[in-house]
Structure formats: C-alpha cells, structure tokens
Design a protein that fits this description.
Two copies of one chain form a homodimer. With 242 residues, chain A is α+β, with helices and mostly antiparallel strands. Helix content of chain A is 24%, strand content 28%. Chain A binds a DNA duplex (27 and 27 nucleotides) through helix 5.
DNA sequence: GAAATAGTGTCTTTAAGACAGTATGTG
DNA sequence: CACATACTGTCTTAAAGACACTATTTC
C-alpha cells in the first residue's frame, strides 16, 4: 500500500475540500478554467482548481482562496453548487468536496492562462436540465479527459445555470460592465444551448427592471449601434467575494 | 510536500456532519421533526437530527442512517439541500454540516413521536423565496428556540421547496399513496404559504402527465366524492433511500 | 444607396384567472 | 330535497412568439 493512502486511512473521518467550476464565455461558447494535473492520481488529466478547507475558514472563503492561489483571480461571482461525497471519488481516501461555481467575463482571464491553466470548451450532451457528466474540448475540438468526478461537477454546474438563468440575474456575471441586449441574449443562448426568441427576450429584460440604460451606444459596428445597458445590482442580488 | 500530508500536519481540519430537516404536513400546516437537546451546547433547544459522517460513507447514506438511528424512520424522500460551514455555527469547534431535507406523509410519523422527538409547526416570516431563518411553534403556538444554525437550515429548506414545487414533483412526497386534487392543492398552498387558483391548478396538474387516475373515489365525505390519483413516478423522478 | 442590425407596433397563440353552470355524493 | 364539493365549459387577461415595418449606423 502506498504511503499516502496509508496516512489517510489512519483517520476516521472524511477530509473536506472545495472545488471551483469557473465558467466564462469565449466566442459564443462556455468554457471552464481547468488545471493540467501532473501528479498521481489522474496525472495528465484536467481538473478543477481545489484545495483543503482550513479549520475556522468559511467555505466560500476557501473557494475564493483557491481561485486566488491557483489562478490569481480575485473578486469573482461565486456560489455554492453541491457537495460531492462518493467514497470512491478520490482513490487516495474519502474526500468530501463542497463544489462552488464561479462566473467571470472573459476579459478578466487573459493574464490567468498559462502552461498548466487552460480554458476548455464545454460540450453538454443533454438539452434540458436532466444533468449528468459533460465533456471538455480543447481548441482543436478534441476531448480532454477530466480527473476525479469533475465532469460530474461541471455537469451539475450547467444544470444549475440552466435552471437559474431564466429567473435569476446570473447572465450578467459573464459580461463586462456594459453590454447590449444582443450580447446578453447570446449569453443566455450559450447557457441554455438553444436559440431564443429575440422579441420576447427584449420585452422581458426591459420589463424586468434589472437593466439600466447607460445612454451610450456601441461603436465599431457596420450597422445601427445598439444601446448599452448596465446591470442594476439591487440589494437582494448576490454579492462578490474578494 | 504532498497536499494531503500538508493538510494533516500543518492545518487542523473541520469536522463533517449531516443534518436532516424532515418536513411533514399536519392539519394543513408544515411541521418539522425536531429533537429536544439535553446536552451542552444549546441544552433545552430543539435541533435537527444529525450526526458525523463516517469514513467511506456516502453523504446520503449518512443522512438516511441518522433518520433511522434517531427517529426510527426508513425509506423516506431525501435530497441534499446545502452545506453550512460558518466557523462559529458550533461553539465547540469548526463543524461543517451537509444539510439534507426529507419529506414524509404524516401517517408514517405516528410511531416516531416520543419524549425527545416532536413535531413543531413552521412559521415562515417571508412570503416569496427570499430566505432567512424561520420560527418553530409548539401546539400552543409558542415559539420554541432552535439550536445551532438550524433555524437557518429550515429556512433554506422552505426556500428550496418553494422554488421547486412549481416544476418538480415534490408535493407528492407529503401525501399518501393516493390523494385527491384538492389534497394536492392544499400541499402546494402550505408550502407556498398562499392560496392558489383551483381551476388552473387542476388544468396544470392533469396536463402534466404526473398523475394517474386510480378509478377509485374518496369516501366519508358529505358531498360528491373526488377522484383519487396516484403519482406516476417516472424514471427521471427522484428515488427514495432505504 | 446597400447592407446589417436596432428598435417599434401589432396580430396571433397559449396559459392562467374568473366564473357560470352541471354532476354526484351524504344527510 | 338541501347542501357541499367535484367537475366542465367558456370568457377574459397577460405574456410569448411571429412578423412587418421603420431607424440608424458603416462602407
């Protein structure tokens, strides 16, 4: 028996970690920020950034710390997703992981991408909110294997997002400070994996009270420029964690 | 250094428990199954049944075991709710709790109620899905204090139920094998805390494909007896845990 | 002016709410 | 038969989808 497994087995309780599924929108498709893993187990696969929860550390703080330490990312939208505790999810021993998902505009990620940190495109094989593991594809469209149960965690993230985007203001977290209605529509289409009706989307969002007109319009386009909106963050909307 | 050893040697880690918010419907109102606590801390308060997660034990199994050991309840609807990890939620140390909620018809609880096990009526002070702690009232309508963050856990349970009952078949879990449409309506009204429109409720449920007519009708009523329905459990519906 | 998307107005379709009226049991 | 609730049919209302039409920018 290898020494690591031996060390874990001497303790009677499961260990507690956090994993963070950070999603962003690139070229109209959702991508996840993943780490290329060098060590046993699952060496060579991609995994979500994660780490142990310290004693006296709040769970959301642990998730934010993991993103800061492993990806140099600060002040992103974070929300608890689900806790994964299958006894065999880590071959070294029983590790229970509280999964969080994070959303961030693509512009904020440029510096973070490096050798062992990559954005993989998500391919969701189901078309409703049924759930199940999903696939991660590299720039060439080749499937890259995911370690542990992280394909399952990303699937649960998509399931949560699809169920939530219609009535909760999460789409804004993937856009910059200001955006057009078409950009917001494209976020919703990327999350839901299907085309949406432009007319009713416009009506619904304008009537929702979530949008504030900036007065500005987009530029650099060969057509009538669209009005730019800002997300009106009310006191009941979720906050960011530093 | 290997991360596992680092966590064990450098940092102490939080302990992991499960807590179960078991809800039932009695006299048209939602009640929670609570234990009267005798020990420090929170001696004299009511608390949710809970316990430590054993190594190599799945989380849902731990939740079902707690219900079996502390309440002699088996084979109930159980679903993971949220994981509570505030460092000060237990004054004895950092205890992270994976909360589950359970739903069970009132008839199945009669034997479970005893000296230290009681059903308290829930009083939800908010009228949408905004969330927050809720109150527990005894048979006389007197508020009974809840230990730890269990008022918060019950509040999150109500929030989840209210958000879910409109599109997921959870109302059936609070009813017996067969039921009338009016009984199902009353379940929805108890969960949502408001009156619903009878006509559209009937239309919606009959069109949903979730109900199977038994052919029988209720008896013992001084008016035209209503048709009895059975919940049509499809393969995508949630299962029970033994 | 051509091209392209933004934005407006209106008709149709669909689901919920309202409500009148009929059906069927008990006492 | 009175009464109470079950159930049915239809009108109204609100929101989504469809689509025609106008507006405004770049090239």
């Amino acid at each position: 028996m290898e020494p690591v497994r031996q060390a874990l087995d001497t303790f009677r309780h499961p260990h507690l970690t956090v994993d963070v599924a950070l999603l962003t929108l690139r070229q109209g498709a959702l991508h996840a920020l993943l780490l290329r893993r060098r060590e046993h187990p699952f060496a060579g696969t991609f995994t979500l950034p994660g780490g142990f929860v310290r004693e006296h550390e709040p769970l959301a703080t642990a998730a934010a710390r993991v993103l800061a330490e492993k990806c140099d990312l600060h002040d992103v939208f974070l929300e608890q997703l689900f806790t994964f505790g299958a006894p065999d999810r880590d071959p070294r021993g029983h590790v229970v992981s509280v999964a969080y998902y994070a959303l961030v505009p693509h512009e904020r990620l440029h510096t973070a991408i490096g050798d062992d940190l990559d954005l993989l495109r998500l391919d969701v094989p189901w078309h409703d909110t049924s759930g199940g593991p999903i696939r991660a594809l590299d720039a060439l469209g080749t499937e890259q294997p995911l370690g542990f149960d992280h394909a399952e965690i990303l699937g649960t993230t998509m399931q949560r997002l699809r169920g939530k985007i219609d009535y909760a203001p999460v789409g804004f977290e993937l856009l910059g400070e200001t955006f057009t209605l078409l950009q917001l529509l494209e976020v919703h289409e990327a999350v839901l994996g299907r085309k949406l009706n432009k007319d009713s989307f416009r009506r619904r969002l304008l009537a929702s009270g979530l949008l504030q007109e900036t007065g500005d319009h987009e530029g650099e386009v060969a057509h009538r420029p669209a009005a730019l909106y800002r997300f009106l963050r009310s006191n009941t909307n979720p906050a960011r964690l530093a």
